[in-house]
Amino acid sequence: MHGGNGKVAYIDTEGTFRPERIVPIAERFGMDANAVLDNIIYARAYTYEHQYNLLLGLAAKMAEEPFRLLIVDSVIALFRVDFSGRGELAERQQKLAQMLSRLTKIAEEFNVAVYITNQVIADPGGGMFITDPKKPAGGHVLAHAATIRLMLRKGKGEQRVCKIFDAPNLPEGEAVFQITTGGLMDVKD
């Protein structure tokens, strides 16, 4: 629909991408689902090193074709698998910083929006008066690499809530939405 006018790259670290979900979303907007799917390139990463190498290959592809969006879902998952325990935390954070630096370079070099998902972990130090003591995984390295951070949570019934957690040019705020077969929709009153 002449939005980004380019392709989407999706790097999947958890095996959750479902191309069949794209079809009803494309149909909702009157688009040819096959054409939409043809503009999405997909890769499944199995280790943090594989994830990094996929980014290197993707940069070469971006030099040949116009891409407008790069999605990494989830950026931290493989680091949490490949590095375990406090003894490997420093190395994990260093390798994560390198990955995030590569993502920033791709964003700037190819004028691509980068959307990364993260995981949350329990925050036992969050205090006993906090009803949902969770915090983003990845620590300060990941927090400082992102320009805008959003926190998603389940709302009432089928509702979902997206909170602006940190953004340089936006105040804190929330938006309530629903996930439907046709994609994201405003909440029905």
From TrEMBL:
Residues 1-120, 126-189 form the RecA family profile domain. One of its GO terms (molecular function) is double-stranded DNA binding. SUPFAM superfamilies: P-loop containing nucleoside triphosphate hydrolases. Gene3D superfamilies: P-loop containing nucleotide triphosphate hydrolases. Keywords: ATP-binding, DNA-binding, Nucleotide-binding. GO terms for cellular component: condensed nuclear chromosome. PROSITE patterns: RECA_2, RECA_3. InterPro entries: P-loop_NTPase (IPR027417), Rad51_C (IPR013632), RecA_ATP-bd (IPR020588), RecA_monomer-monomer_interface (IPR020587). The keyword Zinc does not apply. Transmembrane segments: none annotated. The keyword Transmembrane helix does not apply. It comes from the Eukaryota. One of its GO terms (biological process) is DNA recombinase assembly. Belongs to the RecA family. This is RecA family profile 1 domain-containing protein.
